[in-house]
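Saturday, quiet lab. Running sequence design on the structure tokens for the scaffold JK sent over.
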């Protein structure tokens, strides 16, 4: 097992690579509450089908179940990262753009936890811009 500087980036890249390889699941993702809530957000906007939390003795992992890729152009998500471990990217509610809900979201970590950009704008919250998925 290797050391990962940004586990959230690792999770999102694993999902994208699995879609590109036409796989139906991603195994062996180390568990954290942040990743669980991120996957719940991705499930809500239909970027992933579902996820399972697996427990083996005292070690918890996540298995992510993916949708089938029918049309590679529309079914494989593109990811752009804003926040990096060395540089945090914060955004105010005035700078949040309205985006096409469901097919394009900004993932923002706010004081009310993780949410999509249009939810944060509606609640007038600012936070750390994690990534853009479209």
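Result came back. Writing it out in full:
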């Amino acid at each position: 097992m290797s050391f990962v500087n940004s586990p959230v980036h690792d999770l999102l890249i694993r999902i994208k690579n699995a879609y590109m390889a036409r796989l139906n699941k991603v195994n062996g993702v180390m568990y954290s509450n942040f990743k669980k809530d991120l996957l719940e957000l991705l499930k809500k906007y239909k970027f992933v089908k579902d996820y399972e939390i697996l427990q083996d003795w005292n070690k918890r992992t996540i298995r992510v179940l993916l949708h089938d890729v029918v049309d590679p152009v529309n079914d494989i998500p593109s990811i752009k990262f804003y926040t990096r471990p060395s540089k945090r990217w914060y955004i105010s509610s005035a700078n949040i753009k309205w985006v096409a809900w469901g097919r394009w979201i900004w993932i923002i970590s706010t004081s009310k936890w993780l949410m999509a950009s249009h939810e944060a704008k509606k609640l007038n919250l600012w936070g750390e811009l994690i990534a853009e998925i479209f």
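Notes for JK: The helical segments are 7-20, 33-44, 72-75, 117-122. The domain at 78-134 is CATH 3.30.1490.10 (Dna Ligase; domain 1). Ask whether to fix the surface positions before the next round.
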